[in-house]
Design a protein that fits this description.
The chain is α/β, with parallel strands linked by helices. Helix content is 15%, strand content 28%.
Length: 278
Amino acid sequence: MRTYTRREFIAITTTGAAAAAIAAACGDDGDTKPAATATLAPAGSAPTAAPTVDAGADNAAVGLRWFGQSMFILTSPGGTTVLLDPFNDIGYTVPPPLNTDVATITHEHPDHNNGGLGGTATLFRGLTADGWFDLDETAGDVRIRTIRTYHDDTQGAQRGRNTIFVFETAGIRIAHLGDLGHQLEADQLAGIGPIDALMVPVGGTFTIDGAGATAVTNALSPKMVFPMHYKTARAGGALATADAFLEGKTVQRVGSTDLRLTPADIPAALTAYVLDYE
């Protein structure tokens, strides 16, 4: 596998041809529209909407907002905004381009790779045309790292590669598993390291299911877990609901798309947080 410098990587992934090549290498899992329908910001256009996640007036909290599927915005205490796995038109509301600082994409499937929603954001794609992009960068007060994984349990033979992103800010460590399709090996667990919060797919069919997500959660031992990539009234008809994953766990139904988090807010025991979607 070729190793790209950051400059080389940014250069090749800003072209439509490169994005198409990556998508072809990854394959299509069939749960969304083809990648050719990606909704991207027009060249040279300015973002028309800003994220509204509030990190707190005391400037000591992390803000999280869930839009549905696997798409979140993280806002750091210093005001750095990171857009995670932005979707195309899959049934959830697609907002105007968001003026975030960074956008991260775990893999090139169209329910995760609408990089144009970041507006003028620095875009970090977890995959290259022939492998992974290994990342360890700091954006503002957010450290962003990647871990190599797969979209299936056959080392990518069915659905290609996947990337886990780990975000660290304000003493809080959050892992977004993308479309993880297998249990984690010891080296992957070590690469992720201790985390406080986990965003995990639970809908099965194209990823781990409720039981598999529970096993991954137990292996990583976070105190907060956010189920994602599951069937809702709006989208995800081929997926299961989050019910199987939530069964037997302490569940906090937030009643909002947003959650404000400080280290003092982290519970003593594992709690599943169910956010509303846009």
